[in-house]
Amino acid sequence: MQPAPLIYRLETSPRMISQYGPFVSYQANVDAQGNNIVGDAANEPSISVDPTDGNKVAIGWRQFDTWQSDFRQSGYGYTTDAGVTWHFPGTLQPGVFRSDPVTNSDETGNFFYLSLLVNTFCGDIWRSTNGGQTWMEQSPDGGAHSGDKEWFTVDRTATSMGHGFQYQFWTEFAACEFGGFSRSTDAGATWQTPISIPNAPQWGTLDVASNGNLFVGGGDSGSSFWCIRSSNAQNPAVTPTFDQITTVNLGGSLVFGGTVNPGGLAGQIFLAVDRSGGVTNNNVYMVASVSPFGGNGTDVMFSRSTDGGATFSAPHRINDDPVNPNKWHWFGTIGVAPNGRIDSVWLDSRNAANNIDSQLFYSYSTDGGVTWSPNVTVSNSFNPLEGWPIQQKIGDYITVVSDNAGGDVAYSATYNFNTSRGQHEQDVYFVRVSPSGGPTPTPTATPTPTATPTATATATPSATPTATPRPTPTPRFGPTPRPRPTPGPRP
Prior knowledge:
Layout lengths: L5 E4 L6 E5 L2 E5 L13 E9 L7 E8 L8 E7 L7 E5 L6 E8 L5 E7 L4 E7 L7 E2 L13 E4 L11 E4 L11 E4 L17 E7 L5 E6 L5 E6 L13 E5 L20 E5 L10 E7 L8 E7 L6 E2 L2 E2 L11 E8 L5 E7 L10 E7 L5 E2 L3 E2 L21 E4 L4 E7 L3 E2 L4 E2 L2 E7 L10 E2 L3 E2 L3 E2 L36
Antiparallel strand pairs: 1-2, 2-3, 3-33, 4-5, 5-6, 6-7, 8-9, 9-10, 10-11, 12-13, 13-14, 15-16, 16-17, 17-18, 18-36, 19-20, 20-21, 21-23, 22-35, 24-25, 25-26, 26-28, 27-34, 29-30, 30-33, 31-32
């Protein structure tokens, strides 16, 4: 039997919460008194946690001051008590059209926020030294280059030649200038002229191993997925090249325009590297919500590499419900804890008769992805088709950051009912997940890695970028752009 839904505001401590069993979701986009802001919308959250103080957490999101417009800004919120009480000071630049928020942190607790300027498809980096309470722009507006669905990571390994470097990639043919990858060697203040990544990967993420090697996980927006390595991006004296390209089988295709999120993705590609220092150190993991070939819904599929990205395992289905092509397991993502545990969360329609209403689910692995715990329901059910702010989507992703005890999750849901509109609103929520919050695992196994084709490639710098902004997002095209099988998502 499922726990009864519990959604309310505590009068003794004003905070909007939604409780499901032992899991409590706290709303982040709240007013000064901790109450819901009626009439706005917030989605596509990206979370960062101070690794030196888990009480300090920040979330960036797409903020719509009114659901009656698609004008969005770079919203952010912070907490100093591990997610119980949230503060929403506003946006990075009030009145500036922004999207695709991505946050990250270094090992000392500095937070960074990558934000895309929608009118030019150029991005910039912001920095916070006080847990996300205030932010300062590191690079000038558009100075971080960027493009649609940009993502970045930080090298946190003190012994790495590239310690502190930031690496970023984006959809190359929907960008503010030619090229799909850039590097900053000064904490985001300046960015090098963009270069191309082999295969022009899209809709993915990247991470750095403990030896400084950079790994990019992306695809062609369909059924092709790659793990692409740069061994010398950590060397500031050279232009990065990409020396290993591995095809990864994730058992299906990415979905844009699915019934649960008509104007966006059902999930993008997440790559994460284990830096635990143990037996799983430098394992490379990839996860995506994909539609099995011939199916309609999506499954959360996982693959792992134990040899530095040279080969990957056969795809493993993390969601453990009976196979049903009409069910959506979407926005799948992962985080890797310092002790090597892998946390995965996603939105899931398995319990919905209409195959649309969704709940947040959780599973974890303590053996490098060989086995996974039984899935645990984390949230109440909500309708993702309500609260649309003109754009018919609830964003394109959710995120999780893991520590040794559990994971901090940022996700969007529609728990608050707007009486004047007659439907629920999109809001951003924080919830803590952990192995102790679920049943004793009876894991299922992930196949061992098998050889997959590899290739080598060397990238050379492209032309010096232009800084002239455009009034509308008219992306430039490379010489041979890779076609995508479905229309690209709006940022």
